[in-house]
């Protein structure tokens, strides 16, 4: 479902249940009761979830019960995952070798994006075919995942779409890719119409592609594996490095992969590959260029968030990168929970001047871990070590928890101080801040006698340094950069 669309969940059973209970679960197994409906017998219960938001998504199950036995429930239903789409830009989907495939030829669909997705999902006419972690970097720095469907049959013909998502937000997907029509030919039993495919020659499918694993950004002294992708596997290829005007062939020919490194300052640059055949006097077309960057050549710059790293939705934020070295270019990267990154921008400066990156109005897409790199414009592929990370958090997307002090907010010096953050929402993480400083974020320890989830923050024996204003927030492990509203402030006073 797209944001704002209405969704209804229907629970029903052949048994004579007159009550149904709906639960929403998160990725750690904690659940929140979303409602219960009394019915007059074996009729379904329709739970109206309302317009879709980031809070509505999740895994739902329902239970059946009889009103005369309130605490005796059925087994849970099979789960249904409710997904919200459209939170980020669409990826692209293509078929290796083109959308027209001969019967029994291997079929591979490639989903790619410049966004830092670490999961891709493939659907055929709305049927989910599975998800795959990104396996490498394609040309122009795009992340891509390959869906291998096996030898082509008429059953593979149809309309496909793919979506991107993050492991830390498994229920929030991107917009769908444009839908390519895959047609498997060579059989008269296919019931699918042939798509309008322009006339092509075999040579048009000879162009390979080049990718880097684990990343085209390689720390100094590490290695990177370059893979040349062809329509047919196990082809030999030649690898070239270009300086913009000429191609330099690297020694030898290779079976699909080539390990580069340990890298030095001589390795960064632009690379291409081409298929090699002993039976043909000429090489195939060159792949699109892939830029290999070597990091860690210079000391790291610093990064800071203004006005704060914890921002409410809709507020403006700026990230500042600076260094005592005379960098005239800074590159800003946004990282997700698996370490994959998306380049958010680069800025040319005069030497020693900071670079201010305007992130704009805070949204879920803006939140994440940011680092920046410094470089010189005369050596664009030689970068510094990354800055220390800064986590940018968006708050206010769910109801606030409550914060209290065991024994009260006035504590004598030497007495143990424990603050308790609790909520009726199914948070599995709580965060404690004192005057804006993040103290720690343990997992919720369990349920209180009132059925709320809570976490205890033991601060140890009280000292005057513990006095101050405290607030806590709740969040989910699946969305670590999205926090609740702040609790009401608690002023803790430690007396002598």
Could you walk me through the main structural features you see in this protein, from its secondary elements to its overall organization?
With 496 residues, this protein is mainly β. Strands 19, 21, 22, 23, 25, 26, 28, 30, 31, 33, 34 and 35 form a twelve-stranded mixed sheet that branches. Strands 9, 11, 12, 15, 16 and 17 form a six-stranded mixed sheet that branches. Strands 37, 39, 40, 43, 44 and 45 form a six-stranded mixed sheet that branches. The chain is flat and about 80 Å long. The chain starts with 5 loop residues before the first strand and ends with a strand. Mean pLDDT is 80; it is low at 187-205.
Coarse structural class? mainly beta
The radius of gyration over CA amounts to 28 Å
- What is the number of helical segments per DSSP (H or I, 4+ residues)? 0
What percentage of amino acids are in beta strands? over 45%
Low-pLDDT segments, ≥5 res = 187-205
> Which outline best applies?
flat
Question: What is the CA–CA distance across the termini?
Answer: 58 Å
Q: What portion of residues is helical?
A: under 10%
Report mean pLDDT, rounded to a whole number.
80
Task: State the total count of DSSP E strands.
Answer: 45
Largest sheet: 12 strands, mixed
